[in-house]
From TrEMBL:
Assigned protein family: Belongs to the short-chain dehydrogenases/reductases (SDR) family.
Keyword Signal on entry: yes
Name of one Pfam family that matches: adh_short
Species name: Dendrobium nobile (Orchid)
Name of the protein described by the UniProt record: Short-chain dehydrogenase TIC 32, chloroplastic-like
Signal peptide, first to last residue: 1-18
Keyword set, alphabetical order: Signal
Length: 284
């Protein structure tokens, strides 16, 4: 029934838009429909699948993961389920109290969970450097890095390093974090033979960036600030980061891969703060 509905909508769209425009739209329309209807992909999971369902039967208890933005939303749920499956978690957070509460909640559900909360503000290069040196001094292995934290500023703000806040938090911060932790990830993968994974959480909104999108002067001194544009730029940069780093990791034959992922549309803090952003009407 769902497949028939998609075919019907494809046929209507082809008539309405013509085949040239259709060829440009086909990918996104099919994806959007699959998403809205919760149709499972080739791996058997779709937008209605939960993290618990996806990880059922897997017990990765020998792994250590760092996840940014685990104090709320998608990051908090990812942390909860990874901890439930036995992964040792390191949660860098700018708000230690909030992170402590998430840790307590996870421990109530999974008393054996091993969780370390450490301070890090992704909008500050100094804070990221400080976190990385503190983490590395613990001597822990590192198998998984989930670059998940995200921000969408309504108004123009500069970080202490004088970069636009949304771009700095979502992209520059995660770029630096990954760069500083990559050696540990490659070392862990080499020593253990366990494939290391880096995940950049991005968004389909990256498609909104026009060809001439990256104008760095304009980002630092915009004539008129558009928060959604800054967010889209940061998310495109997350993808470009993953693509280039994937190439480099392959070239050096490292047993570590990097991928970027759009998590779907979920009513989390980032969405609740920005009603109207293609999100109203979705409630996953
Ligand atoms: N929700 C969606 O529909 C959707 C769609 C596409 C992509 N995404 C992406 O999914 C990721 C997770 O977002 P979410 O939806 O779960 O939003 P969320 O509930 O607002 O969570 C954002 C997380 O990022 C953290 N964060 C923000 N600025 C930070 C900073 N300077 N330093 C450290 N941590 C910081 C927040 O920490 P605090 O608690 O300290 O604020 C929070 O833990 C983001 O990358 C977002 O772009 C979400």
């Amino acid at each position: 029934m769902q497949i028939a509905m998609i075919s019907f909508l494809k046929w209507i769209s082809r008539l309405v838009f013509g085949s040239y425009i259709w060829s440009k739209l086909e990918f996104s329309i099919t994806d959007a429909l699959r998403y809205i209807m919760g149709i499972a992909g080739p791996n058997g999971f779709g937008s209605n699948s939960t993290a618990e369902q996806v990880t059922e039967g897997i017990s990765p208890s020998h792994l250590t993961a760092i996840i940014t933005g685990a104090t709320s939303g998608i990051g908090a749920e990812t942390a909860r389920v990874l901890a439930k499956r036995g992964v040792r978690l390191v949660m860098p957070a700018r708000d230690l109290k909030k992170a402590g509460e998430v840790k307590k909640r996870i421990k109530r559900e999974s008393p054996g969970a091993e969780i370390t909360v450490m301070e890090m503000d992704l909008s500050s290069f100094a804070s990221i450097q400080n976190f990385c040196s503190n983490f590395l001094s613990l001597g822990l292995p590192l198998n998984i890095l989930i670059n998940n934290a995200g921000k969408l500023c309504r108004s123009f703000q500069l970080t202490e390093d004088k970069f636009e806040m949304t771009f700095a938090t979502n992209y520059l911060g995660h770029y630096l974090l990954t760069k500083l932790l990559l050696g540990k990830m490659v070392e862990t993968a080499t020593k253990t033979g366990v494939h290391g994974r880096i995940i950049n959480v991005t968004s389909v909104i990256h498609r909104w960036v026009a060809k001439e999108g990256f104008k760095f002067d304009d980002m630092l001194l915009p004539k008129s600030y558009n928060g959604t544009r800054a967010y889209a730029l940061s998310k495109l940069a997350n993808i470009m980061h993953a693509k280039e780093m994937a190439r480099q990791l392959k070239e050096r034959n490292a047993n570590v891969t990097i991928n970027s992922v759009h998590p779907g549309i979920v009513k989390t803090g980032i969405i609740r703060d920005h009603r109207g952003l293609i999100t109203d009407g979705f409630d996953k």
